[in-house]
Specification:
Helix content is 29%, strand content 22%. The chain is α+β, with helices and mostly antiparallel strands. 51% of the residues are buried.
Length: 476
């Protein structure tokens, strides 16, 4: 039986690539280990010696999949890897990336982070031309577009294919000659470039470089494509220019706190700034500030600094909970939350408590946490959220509930407060969140908070994504 899902957006995916190192697969394994937070359903690595591809992939966690015997089956001086959380497609081994093919231009493997909003339409067109798909993931569309392209080089075909897709992609491809990495013109998902002596690397986040001792070179810019091969690094700008729309939720929750993303300071620093801004916007008389661990910790520290209210660890998280457990025959109230979190009565008893979390999705877990804190003796419980209410699903690589499942889309803040049984509830304002985030506020996608999607949808895409209701006469 699956562990009760926490009230969070699900992580998207992680990509990693390296060229020019005799232990390419081992370093890819370590890079994926550092990026485990971005996907826990399955993982894969493809390595190459310039002539042959070697593939290993499986369902499960990185450390469980890549044993010594497995890594020995991955020789070569270049490799790419992927950690998957299913944002599109079923959960099974066929959908675990990298996807590999052999065609007229040799071997090709692809790892993709993001979602393509026109994937279904492209797939239908390709199937009409005879394409046979092996998986249900939208990433496979890119492979078929490359195969069907009339470009006279593999690079030209990759560029042609990526110019046909709409949506989010931070993509890494392995060829017989090297590694190609590209980021969509909006830059929705992060992607960075690193160096390790004579080797070049790409990864979703810089924490992957830190683990293996690689140097962070720079961010791969929105709309940029880079080729890593014997000549070093070549960069191209092959896509139509667009206004950047980088996912601000990467700062709020997704990225690891020690990573640098979007070319700015560490995520940790931004999350503390979000907490300080929240303290300015939503002060409260209280005795103690506690985080919902782990993602709420930096924001809670910022709230404590901004408010002058002492920070304490009032909830302890069990980091060793697996993906399944056996429920006891005798029902235990809030068992799904209690197996993950436990309250500390010595911190909470008799106190007015501020609980800081990064977001509320459905509200179910927040409600259980508030009740747990009260059961530990808290006199008052005040919930503070370091982002605005989530009102819209994401179509750019985050697995979000439908609009009707998002409590912020159909309830007022006061109604949410009553549902989670808190004494008070306040969210960070949109303006405050953007002010606390690095750089220009206009460079971020905030569609999940505003319903303002950076890429305009066609009517067909609206219908496919469930944004457009068909006429009633078409209903059965």
């Amino acid at each position: 039986m699956h562990l009760i899902t926490p009230d969070k957006f699900h992580d998207e995916c992680a990509v990693f690539g390296i060229y020019g190192h005799k232990e390419a697969a081992n370093l890819t394994y370590l890079g994926l280990y550092a990026l485990q937070h971005r996907g826990q359903e399955g993982s894969g690595i493809v390595s190459s010696d310039g002539e042959h591809f070697f593939l290993e992939k499986a369902m499960g966690l990185v450390a469980d999949i890549y044993t010594k015997p497995v890594l020995k089956r991955l020789p070569g001086h270049m490799a790419i890897g992927h950690n998957r959380y299913s944002t599109a497609g079923d959960t099974n081994l066929k959908n675990v990336q990298p996807l590999t093919v052999n065609f007229a231009f040799g071997n090709l493997a692809l790892a993709h982070n993001g979602n393509l909003i026109n994937a279904t339409m492209l797939r239908n067109e390709l199937e009409a031309y005879g394409a046979i798909f092996q998986s249900s993931t939208d990433s496979e569309v890119i492979i078929h577009l490359i195969a069907h392209s009339r470009g006279d080089t593999l690079l030209a075909r990759v560029i042609d294919a990526l110019n046909q897709v709409r949506g989010a992609f931070s993509v890494v491809l392995l060829t017989d000659e090297g590694v190609i990495a590209a980021r969509d013109p909006y830059g929705f998902r992060p992607l960075c470039l690193g160096r390790m002596k004579d080797s070049w690397l790409v990864a979703s986040e810089t924490c992957a470089f830190d683990l293996i001792g690689a140097e962070y070179a720079r961010e791969i810019e929105p709309g940029e494509l880079v080729v890593l091969n014997q000549a070093g690094v070549s960069r191209y700008r092959p896509f139509v220019k667009a206004r950047p729309a980088m996912c601000v939720f990467e700062y709020v929750y997704f990225s690891r706190p020690d990573s640098k993303i979007f070319g700015a300071n560490t995520v940790y620093k931004t999350r503390k700034a979000l907490g300080r801004q929240l303290a300015r916007e939503a002060p409260v008389d209280a005795d103690v500030v506690i985080p919902v661990p782990d993602s709420g910790v930096p924001a809670a520290l910022g709230f404590s600094e901004g408010s002058g209210i002492p920070f304490e660890t009032g909830l302890i998280r069990n980091h060793y909970v697996g993906r399944t457990f056996i429920e006891p025959e005798q029902s235990i109230r809030h068992f799904g939350v209690k197996i993950k979190l436990n309250a500390v009565p010595e911190v909470l008893d008799g106190k007015r408590v501020v609980v800081v979390d990064d977001s509320i999705v459905r509200g179910t877990t927040s409600r259980k946490i508030v009740k747990m804190i009260r059961h530990a003796g808290a006199k008052e419980v005040h919930m503070r959220i370091s982002s605005p209410p989530i009102v819209s699903p994401c179509f750019y690589g985050i697995d979000t509930p439908t609009k009707k499942e998002l409590i912020g889309s159909s309830h007022t803040i006061q109604e949410i407060r009553k549902y989670i049984t808190a004494d008070s509830l306040a969210y960070l304002s949109l303006e405050g969140m953007l002010k606390a985030s690095p750089g220009n506020p206009d460079q971020y996608c905030n569609a999940c908070f505003t319903e303002h999607y950076p890429i305009p949808f066609t009517k067909a895409e609206e219908l496919q994504l469930g944004l457009f209701e068909p006429p009633s006469s078409h209903r059965s």
